[in-house]
Design goal:
With 376 residues, this protein is of the alpha/beta class. Helix content is 43%, strand content 14%. A seven-stranded parallel beta sheet has the order 3-2-1-4-5-6-7, with helices on both faces. The chain is globular and about 65 Å long.
Length: 376
């Protein structure tokens, strides 16, 4: 490639959180004049989220949509890998950007490395140290294949250093998902989506559960639903149900539940429920981070978290997988006002774009640099 040829970056996304994490980077790369292509594997489809991002120009519509759909981990990864290989051969990017730790992340990294395309991993270095989690396999392998690892916390840097990853490959940029949260927070604060369910702000518990360790164990899921039903005697419970969880709930008793179950919600609606919640019960990594940014007490139904910064700097408490622990949530609703984790400031996308541009040998044009410079 000659210095005059335009550099091309291919962003690989596959699940709802991927859009939230890559959108700030995509936006911040635009002034560099780098051509960007968006490949959606179709691992998850979320029409409300996608349409919101497209309509407001935060992301263009995908250049490639592979529609791999849901399947067992191995089959889904294989479908994504085959489709991504074809897409990357066609697009010929100078860099493949993969995000997070879903199966599409691993498939994107494998497809790129086989084609000798450098890889940038956004949200690198997270570790639960729990090898029963498919996400742990995905992020570990992806990190060790990547030429540029963008981290969102100091503990992620420490994990990579302990694994022998060269410091020159690692850039501590902050949390790009918090950039997206900042972009929509004003709207979410005024929406008060809780009123649709007859609830006032600050009076209810928001629940989101979807991981196999909890919902695939029907005995544990039954006990969890029963515990949430008891919790609802003290505080109303709103539970937007993930499709995976919905499929399992058909096998447990929920007929007499006091819980308000809802379909999956769009991003702004869900963010509004988070903002106004008295507390959140979740097993989602992203929700732990959002609760930290919002200073909302968060209780994580997992044995561990790959985001320890949400515990040390945020509002997160890891409850474990025992549903009996839910009973204590109403007595632990103090909102700690801690400082946010370093670089969770709404500018992680800009730092990420700068790191990517340096890797590609691209400088910000003088006109764009002057336009983005802060006034003295």
């Amino acid at each position: 490639m000659t210095p005059t040829q335009q550099r091309v970056v291919a962003h690989v996304v596959g699940a709802r959180p991927n859009y939230m994490k890559v959108a700030p980077i995509h936006r911040a790369l635009a002034p560099y004049g780098i051509a960007q292509r968006l490949i959606h594997t179709g691992q998850h489809h979320d029409r409300e989220l996608n349409e919101l991002f497209f309509a407001e120009g935060l992301l263009p519509r995908p250049d490639v949509d592979l529609a791999v759909g849901s399947a067992a981990d191995g089959k889904q990864t294989a479908r994504a890998l085959a489709g991504l290989e074809r897409a990357l051969i066609e697009l010929q990017p100078d860099l493949a950007v993969v995000v997070g730790d879903v199966n599409s992340t691993l498939a994107g990294a494998l497809a790129a490395v086989k084609l000798q395309i450098p890889i940038c991993h956004v949200e690198a270095g997270l570790r639960s140290f729990d090898w029963s989690m498919p996400e742990e396999h995905n992020r570990w392998i992806t990190d060790h294949l990547s030429a540029l690892l963008l981290t969102h916390s100091e503990s992620a840097n420490e994990n990579l250093a302990a694994e022998g990853v060269a410091a020159a490959r690692v850039e501590f940029v902050g949390n790009t998902m918090i950039d997206t949260l900042h972009a929509y927070l004003g709207r979410a604060r005024t929406l008060h989506a809780c009123r649709r369910y007859g609830l006032a702000p600050g009076t209810y518990v928001l629940v989101t559960l979807h991981r196999p360790a909890l919902v695939d164990d029907l005995e544990r899921l039954q006990a969890t639903v029963e515990a949430l039903d008891q919790l609802a005697k003290r505080l109303p419970v709103v539970f937007p149900v993930h499709p995976r969880t919905q499929a399992r709930l058909g096998s447990v008793e929920v007929e007499s539940s006091r819980i308000t179950f809802t379909p999956p919600l769009g991003y702004v609606d869900f963010l509004s429920l988070e903002v106004d919640a008295a507390a959140i019960i979740t097993d989602s990594g992203g929700v732990q981070e959002e609760a930290t940014a919002l200073h909302v007490p968060c209780f994580t139904m997992r044995e561990n978290t790959e985001r320890p910064v949400t515990v040390t700097h945020g509002t997160n408490v890891v409850l474990g997988l025992d549903p009996a622990a839910i009973a204590g949530v109403p007595d632990r609703l103090e909102r700690p006002r801690r400082e946010l984790p370093p670089l969770w400031d709404g500018h992680a996308g800009e730092r990420s774009a700068s790191a990517i541009a340096r890797l590609l040998g691209v400088e910000l044009p003088i006109a764009a640099s002057a336009a983005t410079r802060s006034p003295e």
